[in-house]
Specification:
The structure holds 2 protein chains of 2 kinds. Chain A has 10 helices and 12 strands. By secondary structure, chain A is an alpha/beta fold. In chain A, the strands form 2 sheets. Chain A has an 8-stranded mixed beta sheet with strand order 6-7-8-3-9-10-12-11, with helices on both faces. Chain A has a 4-stranded antiparallel beta sheet with strand order 2-1-4-5. In chain A, a hairpin with a 2-residue loop joins strand 11 and strand 12. Chain B is of the alpha/beta class. Helix content of chain B is 32%, strand content 23%. Chain B has 12 helices and 12 strands. The radius of gyration of chain B is 21 Å and the shape is globular. The N and C termini of chain B lie far apart (45 Å). In chain B, 46% of the residues are buried. Classes of the chains: A alpha/beta, B alpha/beta. At the A-B interface, helix 6, helix 7 and helix 9 of A face helix 8, helix 9 and helix 10 of B.
Chain lengths: 323, 332
C-alpha cells in the first residue's frame, strides 16, 4: 500500500465526563470520534467537512498524535502511529505537520521567523546550521516570502504573510502529509485565494498530501480530491469531490449543501432547512444519529444504525434510504 | 407577503469618519454615499480595514469617542440629519428607529444577567411605564417572534446556558424589540455553523417581510449578498468604489476591485480551474496612496489613476443605479 500515506481504521475517541472534585465518578462519555475509517493517498487532498462538534478537529489531533485513541488505529506507512517511540516517533513528527486556522495565535510572537520556520527541522532531525539556513531560505522562497524577511518577528507581517510563514514552517522538514485545519477561514477574502492557490501549487511541487479540515464547502470543492462528511463523530458520506458535489446522497450532506450560500443571486439551492441543532455527543440519538433532524426519517432510522455502504465506486454513504 | 420596497428612509452622503491618534489620522471612512429604502436589504461589502464597520457605527454615532469623529458628511434618517444630534437625542433614536445586531453574540450579551433581563432592559427604555409583569410578557413575545422554543423558560436562562444560534436569535429579538425602521447587521452569521446560518438568515428574511424593515448587511461574504440583498455597496480603503442592484454587480462588475474580488471567491456550484488572486494587500489607512486607492494592486492602473482619485461614474445607460469610481468608466 505504498500509495496511501495515511490510513485510519475504526478510530474512536471518547472523552470521559466526570462529576465531583475529589472522588471523581465518570458519568458519561463524549463520543467525539466514534469509529471512522479513511485513507489519504499520496499527493492528494482529503477534506473532512462538518459543523462544529462533529469531531473533525479531534480527528486531526489523533492523526497528529496529540490525543490517544480510545480504539482503532492510525497507520502511516503501515506502522501504528500511536505505538511509535523514540527515533521512529521523531521521524513521524517530521513527516506529518500542521497548519492551523489563526496565524495570529499559531506563531510565537517572541521568535524570529527564521527560528519559527526552522524549528521542526532542528527539533526532529540532526542537521547542521548551514543546512538549516539553506533549507529555510528555500521554503521561504517557495511560499513567496523574501529570505531577507527571516530576521523579522511575526507582528511585522500581515495575516496572509503569517499564514505563509506557517506553511513554510510546516514544509521545512519535507513532510508527506500536512494537516490543514481551516487554513483560510481567518483570512480576508482577497488573501484567501492567494493562500489557496499557494497550497495547491505547493502540493504539486512537493508531492505532499493534505488532510483538509474545513466547514466552507466552496473551499473544499476547490482544493480537495475526496471529501468525507462527518456528523456527530461518524462519517456519513465519502466520495470523490465531483461526485459528492454533483450527487450528494445522504440527507445531511444534501442539507449542508442546500444551506451553503449561493455564488450568484440567480442560483437557488433546494431549501432543506434543518430543524434544531446538532444533538449532544454525550448522549447521541439511537439508530442513525441524524434521525431527529432528518426530513426523511422512518421508524427504522431510530432503531437500527445504518452502515457505510459503497453505492458506486469510491462513493460510500450510511443511510437506510440509499439501499 | 412579498416585501414592498418603499421610499428612501436613510440617506448617507459623503460621510467621513476619521480616527485621530498620536501617530496620525486614520481615515477609516473617507467618503461614503448610499441610500436605503424601506423594506430593502442593502449590503456593504468589504475586507477588514475597508471601513465598513466604522460606517455602521457612525450611522448610530457609536464610533469610538473621543478618538473617532465624523468630520464631514450627513446621515439623514427620514429627513433628519443625525450628525447634528446630541447624545441625548441619539438615545431616543438608537433602538427605536435604528438598531444593530453585532457580529459575535457571545460577547454582545451580558453573561451575568438572564436573557429576560436583557430583553426587558431594551423594552423598558421605550415602555417605561409598564409594570414588570407586562415587560416580561413582551420579552416572551419577542422570543416567540424569533422562534425560540419554550420562551417562558428561556427568559430565565443565562447566556451560557443556550447555544450560539439561540444567542444570536436573542440578540435579534433585542434589536427588533422596539420596532425600529432600520437594522444594521454587522457580520451577523460569521460565528455560526452553516445550517444554523441558513436558519438565521431565513428568520431575518421572515421578520423583514412581516415588518417591512430596512436591513443593512455589513459583510465580506458574497454568498450572503447573493442570497439576501437587493443592492450592494462595495467598499475599499474607506471609500465606496462601486454600488448598484445586486444582479448588476454580479453580472457586470465594473470596478476592477469588485471584478477581482468576485473572481477570487471559489464556488461550490461549479468546478473552478484556478482562482484569480489579487496580489498585495489593502493600503494602510494612515498612509493612503494618492489617487485611486486600488491603483497599486490594479492591473489596469495608469498614471492618472495614481495621481487623481476618480469620481463616481454611471455604469451603462443613464438612469441606472449602478455606479463605480474608476477612470476607465469615464464617458468619452
Amino acid at each position: 500500500m505504498s500509495t496511501q500515506v495515511l490510513q485510519v481504521q475504526g478510530l474512536k475517541k471518547h472523552f470521559p465526563v466526570t462529576k465531583g472534585m475529589v472522588w471523581k465518578t465518570v458519568i458519561g462519555h463524549v463520543q467525539a470520534v466514534d469509529g471512522i475509517d479513511f485513507s489519504v493517498a499520496r499527493g492528494e487532498t482529503l477534506a473532512i467537512v462538518g459543523e462544529s462538534g462533529c469531531g473533525k478537529t479531534t480527528t486531526a489531533k489523533l492523526v497528529l498524535r496529540l490525543e490517544e485513541p480510545t480504539e482503532g488505529k492510525v497507520l502511516a506507512d503501515g506502522k501504528d502511529v500511536h505505538a511509535l517511540e523514540g527515533d521512529a516517533l521523531r521521524e513521524y513528527r517530521t513527516t506529518v505537520q500542521a497548519v492551523f486556522q489563526d496565524p495570529w495565535s499559531s506563531l510565537n510572537p517572541r521568535m524570529r521567523v527564521r527560528d519559527i520556520v526552522a524549528e521542526p527541522l532542528i527539533i526532529n532531525r540532526d542537521v547542521s546550521d548551514q543546512e538549516v539556513k539553506e533549507r529555510v531560505e528555500e521554503v521561504m522562497n517557495s511560499v513567496g516570502l523574501r529570505p531577507q524577511q527571516a530576521n523579522n518577528y511575526p507582528h511585522e507581517f500581515s495575516g496572509g504573510q503569517r499564514q505563509r510563514i506557517a506553511v513554510a514552517s510546516a514544509l521545512v522538514s519535507n513532510p508527506k502529509l500536512l494537516i490543514l485545519d481551516e487554513p483560510v477561514s481567518a483570512l480576508d477574502v482577497s488573501i484567501r485565494a492567494q493562500i489557496m492557490n499557494l497550497l495547491v501549487d505547493l502540493q504539486k511541487q512537493y508531492d505532499v498530501s493534505y488532510l483538509l479540515i474545513a466547514h466552507h464547502l466552496a473551499t473544499t470543492r476547490y482544493m480537495a480530491n475526496e471529501v468525507a462528511v462527518m456528523y456527530l463523530g461518524k462519517i456519513v458520506e465519502k466520495a470523490r469531490t465531483k461526485d459528492l458535489f454533483e450527487k450528494p446522497l445522504h440527507p445531511y450532506t444534501k442539507a449542508l449543501f442546500s444551506a451553503a450560500l449561493p455564488s450568484h443571486p440567480d442560483i437557488k439551492h433546494d431549501e432543506i432547512i434543518l430543524v434544531g441543532e446538532v444533538p449532544s455527543p454525550i448522549n447521541p440519538p439511537s439508530g442513525c444519529r441524524f434521525h431527529p433532524r432528518c426530513p426523511f426519517a422512518m421508524p427504522r432510522c431510530s432503531e437500527e444504525e445504518p452502515q457505510l455502504r459503497e453505492v458506486s465506486p469510491n462513493h460510500v454513504v450510511s443511510c437506510h434510504l440509499v439501499e | 407577503m412579498p416585501r414592498q420596497i418603499g421610499d428612501v428612509i436613510l440617506e448617507v452622503e459623503d460621510l467621513h469618519t476619521y480616527i485621530f491618534t498620536r501617530f496620525g489620522t486614520v481615515k477609516a471612512v473617507d467618503g461614503v454615499t448610499f441610500n436605503l429604502r424601506q423594506g430593502e436589504a442593502l449590503a456593504i461589502v468589504g475586507e477588514s480595514g475597508s471601513g465598513k464597520t466604522m460606517t455602521a457605527l457612525s450611522l448610530l454615532k457609536l464610533q469610538p469617542r473621543p478618538a473617532a469623529r465624523i468630520v464631514k458628511g450627513s446621515i439623514r434618517l427620514e429627513g433628519e440629519n443625525l450628525v447634528d444630534k446630541t447624545e441625548q437625542e441619539m438615545r431616543q433614536i438608537r433602538g427605536r428607529r435604528i438598531s444593530m445586531i453585532l457580529q459575535d453574540p457571545q460577547t454582545s450579551l451580558n453573561p451575568v444577567f438572564t436573557i429576560g433581563n436583557q430583553l426587558t432592559e431594551a423594552i423598558a427604555i421605550h415602555h417605561a411605564h409598564d409594570e414588570k409583569r407586562s415587560l416580561v410578557q413582551r420579552a416572551i413575545d419577542g422570543l416567540k417572534q424569533v422562534r425560540v422554543a419554550a420562551p417562558e423558560r428561556r427568559v430565565e436562562d443565562y447566556p451560557h446556558q443556550i447555544s450560539g444560534g439561540m444567542k444570536q436569535r436573542v440578540v435579534g429579538a433585542i434589536a427588533i424589540s422596539c420596532e425600529p425602521k432600520v437594522i444594521i447587521a454587522d457580520e451577523p452569521t460569521t460565528s455560526l455553523d452553516v445550517t444554523i446560518q441558513a436558519q438565521y438568515l431565513r428568520l431575518l428574511r421572515e421578520i423583514q417581510e412581516a415588518t417591512n424593515l430596512a436591513l443593512i448587511f455589513i459583510t465580506h461574504d458574497f454568498g450572503i449578498v447573493a442570497k439576501m440583498c437587493d443592492r450592494v455597496v462595495v467598499m475599499y480603503a474607506g471609500r465606496h468604489v462601486e454600488s448598484g442592484p445586486v444582479r448588476d454587480i454580479f453580472n457586470k462588475p465594473s470596478h476592477p476591485y469588485t471584478q477581482a474580488l468576485l473572481k477570487s471567491v471559489p464556488s461550490m456550484d461549479e468546478d473552478v480551474e484556478r482562482l484569480y488572486s489579487i496580489d498585495g494587500q489593502p493600503p494602510a489607512l494612515w498612509d493612503l496612496p494618492e489617487g485611486c486607492r486600488f491603483a497599486p494592486r490594479c492591473p489596469y492602473a495608469d498614471d492618472r489613476c495614481r495621481r487623481e482619485y476618480p469620481p463616481t461614474f454611471i455604469v451603462g445607460k443613464n438612469g441606472t443605479e449602478h455606479t463605480a469610481a474608476c477612470w476607465r468608466l469615464e464617458p468619452v
